[in-house]
Structure formats: C-alpha cells, structure tokens
Specification:
By secondary structure, the chain is α/β, with parallel strands linked by helices. It is built from 17 helices and 15 strands.
Length: 546
C-alpha cells in the first residue's frame, strides 16, 4: 500500500514536460539524435508525456527547402526512426515533422508511444502575414478528419480529430495543436477539451520579438482556464536559423490558468522543464462547471466526432516524488503583494455587505456584542493581521489588536483551569488549524478523496525546510507533520465535517461569499445534508492511506 500511496499515478496525476532540443538547420540526423536524447532523459525522470517544438525533426526555418523531395523523404524516415529508437521508453512523445499526404505537405504533430506511431495531427491554421509565409509551403489541416497516412509499413490515423488516451491511467487524455492554432479565435484545443482531453499540447516554433513571451503566457493561461485543462507549450530555441528571425525556446506548463513551471529563455543548451498535472482536479473542475457541459452541447458534442486513439501507458507505480508545488496555505497566496490585494478585497467585501445591511434596516447606530468568541471578535476587527501590518489604525490600537490576536482560541463558555488559569485549546482538540484549512480547501473546492488529500498534505507539510512559507509566519510556527499525524487529524476532520457539524452550518445567517477557494453558505457553494454520515470518506481514508 505504501508504494502505491506515494505514486502520483495512483492519484491520477501525470508528469509532463516541454522539451527544447538544440536545433540543427537542415540536419535531420542531428535533430533526430537530439530528440532521442531528450526522450531518454524524460523517461529517466519519470515523465509521462513530452512535447517537442514545431517541426523539431527538420527545423522550422527552412523556408523553400521544405519543398525539396530529399528533405521530405528524410523527414518521413526520421519519424519512423524516432519511433523505433524510443520503443523501450514509457513517455507519450509529440514530435514535429513535415509530412506529405495526397500530394500536399503538412506541418504535423506526430504522437509516438513505445515504438508505435499513434497518429498524426496536421496544423489547422497557417499564418501568412508579416514575417510568416507558411501557405507558401504547407496545406492547412483544417477540416481533415477520418483519414490515414502511410508511414513506414503502417497506415496511421491522420487528421485534426485525434485524441490520445491512456487506457490504464484515467484522465490522461492528450490533444495536440501547433503554434498558430492557439492564436486563432477558435483554437482546436477548445474542441479537444470539450471532447475529453485534459492535457492540451502546443508544438510551436514561434520566433521571439519584444513582448511576445508575455503574449504566449497570456494565451496559455487563458486557454487552460477557459478549457479547464492543462496546457503544455514548447517553442523552438537554440540552433534555429537566425537569417531573419530569432528564437527564445520558451517552455510553459499551465493548469487551470496557473503557471506550474517555465523554462529559461535564450539558453544555448537543450532544456526539459517538468511538472505534474492533476488530471483528477481537471475532471472535478469540469464536473462542477455546468457551462463547460453546455459548451460541449453547443458545439454538437465533439466527443462523438473525435477518434480516441488508445494506448497502454504502463506507467511506474513507485514513488517518483511530486514535481509540483503544493501551497501549505491554499486559501491565501504566499506572495505578499497578492496577499495584500486579497485582504483588501476581503475587507471591503465585508464592509460593503455591512453598509448595505445597515442601510436596508434603517439602523442609526451599530452595536456589536463581543462575547469572547472568535466570530464576534472577527466581526469587530475584520482581518486583524492585515489591519495591523498595513497600519490601518494607530499604534496604540494596533497593540491592542495584536494582543487579542495572540490569545489562544478556546471553546466558548468554557472557564479557565481553576488552579493554573490556563485556557482550554481548541487547536489541541481539533488539530492544527493549518491542516484543517488544508483539508477543507481540497474537500470543498475540489472534492478530492481523503487519500489524495493526505498525499498532497504530506508533500506540503512533511518537511518544514522545503517549499515556500508566507513571510509573516514566524520561525517557531514553521512546523512539519508526518503521515500518521496527517492521517489522524484528517480522520477527525472528516467525522466533524461530514457528520457532526453540518447542522450548525445549516443555520448560519446571511453573509457574502469572500473566497474563490470555496464557501460554506447553505445557500451558496456548499449544499449538504445536516444528518449524514462520514462512512464513505472514512473507509476510503483507512483503506488507502498506510
């Protein structure tokens, strides 16, 4: 169980990479060797899917040399050779090549896995403006569906209607598009995502000009957010022809609008940037977003029109680590500037709601009864830490607020110990607040199973020296929790959250939603019975966490 628990694949995660090999203009053998070397490195690093740049087997900036017969035959042979030379390795590999079919030359993404060419996707949109002249050499792939292409001794699926799906790894479904495709108003990856792809890949050449890197990031972030997918982007880099253009080799990996990792740009060496994609999170996001399903219906349910090319991935089940940053405090950003912005908005959301309520009731005065409980104190001094740190009040008031904040939170109406004067500690009874917040986020916002929440919590909290901490967390509060501790408190959280505490939540008064990370209003984000049981979640935790 321990080995399976620590495997990313057991939690429906997939390791992806954007590869930037060094190009050799017109030297297909050298480009083939470079691609094979990066595929070998990716396999050694436990990568499941690798995205190479556009036309990486030939190089992009060949201009009219693309139309030479010798070049075309060498490109065909390189694709077959690449499949043969990578047959022993596990990753799904997306390489770029120019291929001839039915008297037309296409700019293609070729999907290869364990020696098998799974399919060929032609570029849909060909740029033919400013510095681009692709229609001079290539035919558009737009609308080509249900076709095949001869490569080596096999007829291989060819068209823009292809998805590549691992039959033994749920959620690992890949769509490929090429460079200009995601600059188009209707990127093919939108249809791919609506048809079921969770990982959308872009093989790009994309020369660099001032400001273009930001534009690529904007497009990748927007597409991954809008299509509820991961987006892996790889642009051509060192070695491409600089006759008229330059290349920066930008590699990007996004998930739901969030940048997971990026390559160094203008590097003179090959680079492989890697991140772990949470396919279950993507699927859960789509389940929660009715607009995503409506969009699929409006598009005519594209899953009926695609060819889903299956492959047996044969992924490793052992512990390969986690190549993904997990925030210890998922409700708030670590970055101070973003945190200040969030606090400003949270503060003013509450102020605006209170002003509206007072004006609606016609009250002339405001009285807040401070009972000693946290909720009434919070109502009195919204977001106390932010108020103090940003000097919303004078120094004397800040001192009083800081003193209140430093007090141990204790059960309401429970007196202090008669002998020692010590108050009972709520945290010692329910577990560390930071862990409870972590558990709540992944239950409420993403609906993840307890075993996966424990997996993520362990990676976030097992080593205090790893990962980032918000700057205002003091050194003595930067603690670590081992897996037995996480499991212990998670079990108690599940009982409390699903079984014993819903009734009080069901009776809470009006209040505006503040956090995009989820809310517990019975009229808003969280609808749940107040007389249910936690058995499903407890059984899953006990069965799958060592």
């Amino acid at each position: 169980m321990t080995q399976l628990f620590h495997s990313i694949h057991a939690h429906q995660m997939v390791r992806v990479a954007a590869a930037t090999p060094r190009a050799s203009v017109g030297d297909i053998d050298a480009n083939l060797d470079a691609a094979v070397a990066m595929a070998r490195e990716a396999d050694a690093r436990g990568v499941d899917c690798v995205v190479f740049p556009e036309l990486n087997l030939t190089s992009y900036a060949l201009d009219d040399l693309h139309l030479q017969s010798a070049q075309q035959r060498a490109s065909d042979a390189a694709v077959v050779a690449f499949a043969e030379r990578t047959a022993a390795w596990a990753p799904l590999l997306l390489v770029g090549a120019a291929l001839v079919r039915n008297g037309r030359l296409y700019n293609c993404a070729v999907a290869v896995h364990r020696g098998r060419i799974l399919g060929v996707v032609p570029k849909s949109f060909l740029p033919n403006y400013r510095e681009y002249y692709e229609k001079r050499w290539f035919a558009p792939g737009l609308g080509l569906t249900g076709l095949t292409i001869r490569l080596g001794d096999a007829d291989v699926p060819f068209g823009t209607d292809l998805l590549f799906a691992a039959e033994d790894l749920p959620g690992f479904v890949v769509h490929a598009e090429i460079c200009e495709d995601y600059w188009a108003p209707t990127p093919p990856s939108t249809m791919g995502a609506l048809a079921g792809a969770t990982i959308c890949c872009n093989l790009s050449a994309s020369n660099i000009v001032i400001g273009k890197a930001r534009e690529r990031m904007l497009l990748a972030a927007a597409q991954s957010a809008r299509a509820a997918c991961a987006y892996v982007y790889s642009a051509a880099g060192p070695g491409e022809s600089t006759t008229d253009l330059a290349w920066d080799g930008q590699g990007l990996i996004y998930e739901l609008g969030e940048l997971l990792t990026e390559s160094s740009r203008f590097s003179n060496a090959a680079e492989l940037v890697v991140a772990d994609i949470d396919c279950e999170r993507l699927v859960q996001e789509r389940l929660r977003n009715g607009t995503f399903n409506d969009s699929a219906a409006a598009a005519g349910h594209p899953e009926r029109d695609v060819r889903r090319i299956g492959f047996t991935h044969g992924a490793r089940d052992g512990d390969t680590g986690l190549d993904r940053r997990i925030r210890r405090f998922p409700f708030v950003p670590d970055d101070p500037a973003r945190r200040d912005e969030d606090c400003y908005e949270a503060f003013n959301i509450q102020v605006e709601a209170l002003v509206k309520r007072l004006s609606a009731t016609g009250s002339k005065t405001l009285v807040i009864g401070v009972s000693g409980g946290l909720d009434s104190t919070h109502a009195l001094i919204f977001l106390i830490r932010w108020c103090i740190r940003t000097d919303q009040y004078d120094a004397a008031t800040n001192t009083v607020l800081a003193t209140i904040l430093a007090q141990e939170i204790s059960p309401e109406l429970v007196p202090a110990d008669a002998d020692t004067g010590a108050m009972q500690s709520t945290e010692s009874m329910i577990g560390p607040y930071a862990l409870n917040d972590f558990f709540a986020h992944y239950v409420i916002r993403h609906g993840l199973a307890p075993s996966k929440i424990a997996f993520l919590a362990w990676h976030a909290w097992h080593d205090a020296a790893q990962g980032g901490w918000p700057e205002d967390v003091p050194a003595d509060a930067r603690v670590a929790y081992d897996l037995p501790t996480i499991k212990y408190w998670l079990e108690r959280f599940l009982v409390r959250f699903f079984q014993t505490s819903q009734f009080k939540r069901s009776a809470i008064p009006n209040g505006p939603k503040v956090s995009a990370g989820g809310a517990l209003s019975p009229r808003g984000d969280w609808r749940a019975p107040s007389d249910g049981t936690a058995s499903v979640w407890l059984n899953e935790l006990r069965r799958n966490v060592p």
